Every structure is written in structure tokens, then in C-alpha cells.
Amino acid sequence: MSRQHIPVRAKNIVLIGFMGVGKTTIGKMVADKLYRDFIDVDIEIERRYDKTIPEIFAQHGEGYFREIERNTVIDICDNKQCNIVSLGGGAFKQEAIREKCLDSCLVLFLDLSWDRWKERMDLLIENRPVLHNKSVDEVQEIFDERQAIYAEHNARVTTDNLNPEEVADYIVEILKLGWELHQPLS
């Protein structure tokens, strides 16, 4: 797949990472700081299909959800620029999504250690169908499996011991530095 020519400053910034790592919270803050629109793919899917993610899973299954997730992400990548985009925790497992995001966007991996994530687990399970009826060990298997998938990115941001505001400030700082380095010489 050939790389699309999109100026660096116009590229969507895509946030990836395990569910509950803070992609939505941090993404909204980054969008505000950079005067960009924020798109949470899960919320966009709920808006487009007029159903919650748990309802889509219950009525149509994970396979159907992954298909509409893929179509939604590819549509955003093809038709929108200058956005901060938060992907669902499992979206990057799909090769088509990974390729499209890496081809046309800047992909930032929000990395949170298992121990820190586990502290949030009870708050997260209800709205994440993938975690329903899973033991802690089963959830850790999913977490560990996805770490390898998240390894394909443009930058990794370790979020342990940082609050969302600190992570957002750091992301803005590295983006602005990157944009300066990619500024064409006149």
C-alpha cells in the first residue's frame, strides 16, 4: 500500500491503546489544546448506527461490530483531516485499520502497564462487552496479546504515573516539535 501524501500538520492524530487507558479523556484534551475536532470511533459508531456498542455486540455479534468499526475508521481516515481520533481498544487488531492509520495518520500508542490498568478494571467492565465474563487472567491474556499489535505506531507515550493533563501536554509538545522538524525549508 502506498503512502498517501497528506501534509504532516493536516494528518489525523490517532490514539491507540488498551481499553480504559484514557484515549477518550486524553484525546479530548489534546484536541482542545490543538484546536482540532475530536472523534471517538466508538461514539461515532453509536451515532451512525443509533445503538450502543453493547447493543451492537448483543444483537449482531463481535464480527459485525468489527466490520462496521473497520468501515468507520477507514471512512474517517479517507475523508477527514486535522482530527484527534480515538480508536477502540481492539480496533488496531484489524490489519486494514492498522495499515490505513499508519499510511495516512500519525499513530500514538498510549501505553499503560498491566498493574496500573488492573487498578481501573472494575470501572471498565460494564461498558466493554469483550471483558464480560472474563477472569483477571483472561483479561491479562487479551492485554498481553494486544501489546504486540500496538507495537506498530509512530510514537509511544508511557502514561504510568501521569495524569491525563500531563499526558495531553506531552503529546502536544511532541506533535509541535515534530511539525517544526517537518516544516519545509523556504
In total, the number of domains comes to: 1
| Integer-rounded radius of gyration | 16 Å
**End-to-end CA span:** 31 Å
Helix vs. strand class: alpha/beta
Low-confidence stretches: none
Calculate the mean pLDDT score and round it.
89
Principal-axes geometry comes out as globular
Along the chain, the helix and strand elements come as: EHEHHEHEHHHEH
Assigned CATH architecture = 3-Layer(aba) Sandwich
Cofactor: Mg(2+)
GO cellular component, one term: cytosol
Enzyme class: transferase
Family: Belongs to the shikimate kinase family.
Element layout with pairings:
Layout: E1 12-16, H1 23-34, E2 37-40, H2 41-49, H3 53-79, E3 83-86, H4 95-104, E4 105-111, H5 114-118, H6 121-124, H7 136-150, E5 155-158, H8 164-181
Parallel strand pairs: 1-3, 1-4, 2-3, 4-5
Helix pairs in contact: 1-8, 2-3, 3-4
Overview of this protein structure:
This protein has 186 residues and is α/β, with parallel strands linked by helices. Helices cover 54% and strands 13% of the residues. The protein contains 8 helices and 5 strands. Strands 2-3-1-4-5 form a 5-stranded parallel β-sheet. The longest helix has 27 residues, at 53-79. The protein is globular.
In short:
This protein has helices spanning 23-34, 41-49, 53-79, 95-104, 114-118, 121-124, 136-150, 164-181; strands at residues 12-16, 37-40, 83-86, 105-111, 155-158.
Can you tag this structure with a few keywords?
186 residues, alpha/beta, Rossmann fold, five-stranded parallel beta sheet, 8 helices, 5 strands, 54% helix
